[in-house]
Amino acid sequence: MDPRPAAIRRRLEGLRTLVVASSKGGVGKTTISVAMAMSLRDLGWRAGLLDLDLTNPSCHHLLGSRLSGPLEDKGLVPPVERGIRFLSIAQLSGDKPLALRGHEVDEAVKEILAVTRWPGVEVLVIDTPPGLGDEILDVVSLVPRGELVLVATNSLLATTSLRRAAEALAGASKIAGVVENMRRGGSTSRVEEEAARLGLRYLGSVPYVEGLDELVERDATALERLIAPHVAAVLGKLGFERRGG
Amino acid sequence: MHEWSLAEAVVEAVASFAREHGSKRVKLVRISLGELQAVDVGIFKEALSLLGESVEPRIEGFQLEREKAVLLCRGCYETLLLEELSLSDEEREAVHFVPELLHAYAKCPRCGSSDLDVIRGRGVSIKSIEAE
């Protein structure tokens, strides 16, 4: 008998969990995930961020993380970086390459969710790798009351993937809605149309920013300035209003 | 004390299972400890005893069995033991937290592949629960 599922339910009870997902790569899930955590922090919520892309973690680059290791205190306690409690497999692997087979991904995801404590965190954002593999299936089945935020861009490939993800994950988890990333002005939105067809809530869009990767590389605050404000509007639709000061 | 979180997981799972099955007493829980996770048995036992007292139904006893790690290299299809891999203390520590991190640090001494499948002895699992 595997003791971890019961432990995971207990670890995450009382947290709101936003699971950022897409069955297609390249739509900007990590950008949205990191910007969401930053935006939640800026709105006065105590945010956590978990990078569940085990074989290609990249949240730490966008967060400007120093990859400090987690503390060991009755489990693993992720360090706080830029006001966000952040955990990535890269902190434990020293960002070394990690190639895993499916059953190993499943084991590692369960282990991480079971032994990680998130003291003080109210909202946990989970960034998942592209596809409908073990990471997303584990999160959907193990995380209590996880809310899926599906990300898509305005292209046929991305909206087809959106439909696949929505149909595959419907019923298994609550789909909070759809975020359109890299929206360019003036064009009609296939994403909005597809969300309506699927009966999903369109949570809003984040504009296309030319050379965003380079901007973030040069200036650690670029994501906060250029993306996080748009993500704040999305979070507002999910009930995260500004709090305090 | 990462052992504490593993003990919490075991106790939580056993207590939930016992409640679901209407058990009033849990007499003995047998647990297998895979070598790869390198659990500190002393700390783990102490945590189990303390936590086992605090759940409903109470867990009266634990029996721990160590399980040696056996790996299969998918490069050359030879089986390997953990002592055949050269891991530093720091690397062992990472593997202790998440055994799959072995793939970041270890290579088959025969063919150099890091595609090593853990056949036995990964981590903590509950083998049996004696309850009434």
- What is the number of strand segments of chain A? 10
Largest sheet of chain B: 3 strands, mixed
Distance between the termini of chain B: 32 Å
Label the structural class of chain A.
alpha/beta
Radius of gyration of chain A: 17 Å
Going across the biggest sheet of chain A, name each strand in turn. 5-6-2-7-1-8-9-10
Describe the structure.
The complex is a heterodimer of chains A (245) and B (132). With 245 residues, chain A is α/β, with parallel strands linked by helices. Chain A is 41% helix and 20% strand. In chain A, the strands form 2 sheets. An 8-stranded mixed beta sheet of chain A has the order 5-6-2-7-1-8-9-10, sandwiched between helices. In chain A, α8 links the parallel β9 and β10. In chain A, α1 crosses α5, α2 packs across α11 and α5 packs parallel to α6. Chain A is globular and about 50 Å long. With 132 residues, chain B is α+β, with helices and mostly antiparallel strands. Chain B contains 4 helices and 6 strands; from the N terminus they run αβαβββααββ. In chain B, the strands form 2 sheets. A 3-stranded mixed beta sheet of chain B has the order 2-1-6, covered by helices on one side. A 3-stranded antiparallel beta sheet of chain B has the order 4-3-5, with no helix packed on it. In chain B, α1 packs across α2. The radius of gyration of chain B is 17 Å and the shape is elongated. The model of chain B has no long low-confidence stretch (mean pLDDT 94). The chains are: A alpha/beta (245), B alpha+beta (132). At the A-B interface, α1, α4 and α5 of A face α1, α4 and β6 of B.
